[in-house]
Amino acid sequence: MKIEIWSDIMCPFCYIGKRQLEKALAEFPNDEFEIEWKSFQLDPSITPQSGKDVYAFLAERKGISLEQSIEMHKGVVERAKSVGLDYHFEKAVISNSLTAHRIIHLAKTQKLGDEMEEIFFKAYFTEGKDLNDASTLIELGSQVGLNENEVREVVENEKMYLNDVTKDIAEAQEIGVQGVPFFVFDRKYAISGAQPHETFVQTINETNK
Question: What is this structure's pTM?
Answer without folding.
Answer: 0.95
